[in-house]
Design goal:
Layout lengths: L87 H9 L8 H15 L8 H29 L1 H9 L7 H23 L1 H32 L11 H18 L6 H35 L14 H18 L6 H32 L13 H17 L3 H30 L22
Helix pairs in contact: 2-3, 2-5, 2-11, 2-12, 3-4, 3-5, 5-6, 5-7, 6-7, 7-8, 7-9, 8-9, 9-10, 9-11, 10-11, 11-12
Length: about 450
C-alpha cells in the first residue's frame, strides 16, 4: 500500500543535486505512468488544500549542493556548430582583391613589351640591354603577383568573377591574361636568359608560352560566344579586339621556341600552328576594325575615359607584321619567298598602323584637354605601340632601309613615355586605394510624393 503524501515523489536524481521543477507540458493521458510509487486515487489532496504561494520557500533558501555534484542539465535541440571565421588578416587581403579584374594584366603586357622591343632595336646604346632585362624581370614579378591575386579573387569572390565574365565591358580583358603569359615567356628567351641562363630560360619560357597559348585559344572562342549569347551591347568597342588578338601574340612568339626544337615534325607542327593562329586572329580583327571606325564616324568621339582604347587597333596591325617577319625568319631556305611576302604584307599594314596612330593620338590629345583623367585604359599606350616597334624592327632587318630603324626608335621613345605615364598613374592609384575600390553607390532617386497643385 502506498504511503499517503501531499506530493508525488520526484524521480531519483544525482546524489546531492536539486530536483528540477517540471516545466514541460502535462503528460498525455495515454502515456505510461512514471516509475516509482504512485499515490492512490483516494489519497490525492482535495481542491484548495495545496499550500498558498506565500508558504513556498524563498529563492536562495534551498541548501547548496555538495561540492563535486553534477547538476542536471536541460536537454535542448541540437545546434549546428558555428563556422570558424577567417582571421582578420585573411579577410582584409580577400577584401582587397574583390574588385581586381582581368584588365590588370595589361600592365604586365605593357612592361614586358618595353623590354622585348628595346632589346631588338637596331641601335646600340650602352646599358640598354641591362635596362630591358630589368623591365622583363619586373614584368615577371608583376605576373606572379597578379596570378596569385587573381587566384585569391576566384577563391573568395566567385560572384564577382562570374560577374566579370558576364559584363561586356570587362569580359574582353580576359584576353590580356593570355597575352601577358606569352609576352613574358617570349621575353624570357630574348633577355631573360642573360640572368637565368639558357636552360632555365627555355624551360620557364616554354611553360609560360604553352599556358598563354592555351588560354588565348580558349579566350578567343569563349568571349565571342558570351558576346553573342549573354552580353547586351549598345555599340562596337575596340575592346572586342582583346580576346581575338591573343592567338596573334602566340603566333609572333612561337618562332622563337620553334628555333629551339630539332628540325622535323615538332618544329614544322609548331610553325604551322603559328601560321594558323596568325590567320585566324587577323581575319577576326578585320571584322572588328571596320565596326570601330564606323562607330567613330557615326557616333562621334568616345567617352573621355575610353579614348585611349582606340590605340588597341594598333595591336593586330603591329603584331601581325611582327608575326609575318618572325615566320619568314623561321622558314629558312625551304621557302625562298618568305621574306619577300613578309615585306609585301608588313609595309602596307605598317602604313595603315601609322595612320591610325595619328587619328587615335589626335583624339587622345582632344580628350586630355577636356579633362581626361587616369584610368587603366592608359596601358593601351604601351603594348599596341610596342607591337608596331617590333614590326618595324623586322622590316628593317628584311629590307635594310634606314627609314625603318628611325621610325622604330621614334616609336620606342613614345612607348617609354606611355609606360611612364601609365605606371605613374597606377602607382598613385594603388597607394590611394582608388584603383582597387569598388564602384561608388548609385545616386539616390527621390521617392514618389504628393504636393499641392493649387
Amino acid at each position: 500500500m502506498a504511503t499517503p503524501a501531499r506530493y508525488l515523489p520526484p524521480p531519483a536524481a544525482h546524489p546531492g543535486s536539486l530536483p528540477l521543477p517540471h516545466t514541460g507540458p502535462p503528460p498525455h493521458a495515454d502515456s505510461p505512468p512514471p516509475p516509482g510509487p504512485v499515490a492512490d486515487a483516494g489519497s490525492l489532496p482535495a481542491p484548495g488544500s495545496l499550500p498558498a504561494p506565500g508558504s513556498l520557500p524563498a529563492p536562495g533558501s534551498l541548501p547548496h549542493p555538495p561540492r563535486g555534484a553534477v547538476p542536471l542539465q536541460r536537454r535542448g535541440p541540437l545546434r549546428r556548430p558555428r563556422r570558424t571565421p577567417a582571421a582578420p588578416g585573411v579577410r582584409t587581403r580577400a577584401a582587397a582583391v574583390r574588385h581586381l579584374g582581368p584588365q590588370w594584366y595589361a600592365a604586365v603586357m605593357g612592361t614586358a613589351i618595353v623590354g622585348s622591343a628595346g632589346a631588338a632595336l637596331p641601335v646600340r646604346v650602352p646599358g640598354l640591354r641591362t635596362a630591358c632585362t630589368a623591365m622583363w624581370a619586373l614584368s615577371l614579378l608583376a605576373l606572379l603577383a597578379l596570378v596569385a591575386a587573381r587566384a585569391a579573387h576566384w577563391t573568395h569572390h566567385r560572384d564577382r568573377a562570374r560577374a566579370h565574365l558576364l559584363d561586356p565591358a570587362v569580359a574582353p580583358f580576359h584576353g590580356c591574361a593570355a597575352m601577358a603569359l606569352v609576352s613574358v615567356g617570349g621575353g624570357t628567351l630574348l633577355v631573360g636568359r642573360d640572368w637565368l641562363g639558357a636552360g632555365a630560360a627555355v624551360a620557364l619560357g616554354a611553360v609560360l608560352y604553352a599556358a598563354g597559348t592555351l588560354a588565348g585559344l580558349a579566350t578567343a572562342a569563349a568571349v565571342p560566344y558570351l558576346m553573342v549569347v549573354r552580353h547586351r551591347v549598345a555599340e562596337p568597342s575596340p575592346l572586342w579586339l582583346l580576346p581575338v588578338v591573343a592567338p596573334m601574340v602566340s603566333a609572333a612568339q612561337g618562332p622563337l621556341f620553334a628555333a629551339r626544337l630539332p628540325p622535323g615534325e615538332a618544329r614544322g607542327t609548331l610553325l604551322a600552328l603559328c601560321l594558323a593562329m596568325c590567320g585566324a586572329s587577323l581575319l577576326a580583327s578585320l571584322l572588328v576594325v571596320p565596326l570601330v571606325f564606323g562607330r567613330l564616324v557615326t557616333g562621334g568621339p568616345p567617352p573621355l575615359a575610353a579614348t585611349p582604347a582606340l590605340l588597341l587597333v594598333l595591336g593586330p596591325l603591329g603584331q601581325s607584321t611582327t608575326a609575318a617577319n618572325a615566320l619568314a625568319d623561321a622558314a629558312g631556305p625551304g621557302v625562298p619567298y618568305a621574306a619577300a611576302l613578309a615585306v609585301l604584307y608588313g609595309v602596307p599594314v605598317t602604313g595603315f598602323a601609322l595612320l591610325w596612330l595619328a587619328l587615335a593620338g589626335a583624339l587622345v590629345v582632344r580628350a586630355r584637354r577636356r579633362g581626361m583623367r587616369f584610368a587603366l585604359t592608359w596601358w593601351a599606350f604601351t603594348f599596341p605601340v610596342g607591337t608596331c616597334v617590333t614590326g618595324l624592327e623586322g622590316l628593317a632587318g628584311h629590307t635594310g632601309l634606314a627609314v625603318f630603324p628611325v621610325v622604330a626608335v621614334a616609336l620606342y621613345g613614345l612607348l617609354v613615355a606611355g609606360w611612364l605615364a601609365a605606371a605613374a598613374g597606377t602607382v598613385r592609384g594603388l597607394l590611394s586605394g582608388t584603383l582597387l575600390a569598388g564602384p561608388g553607390p548609385a545616386p539616390r532617386v527621390p521617392g514618389p510624393g504628393t504636393a499641392r497643385t493649387t
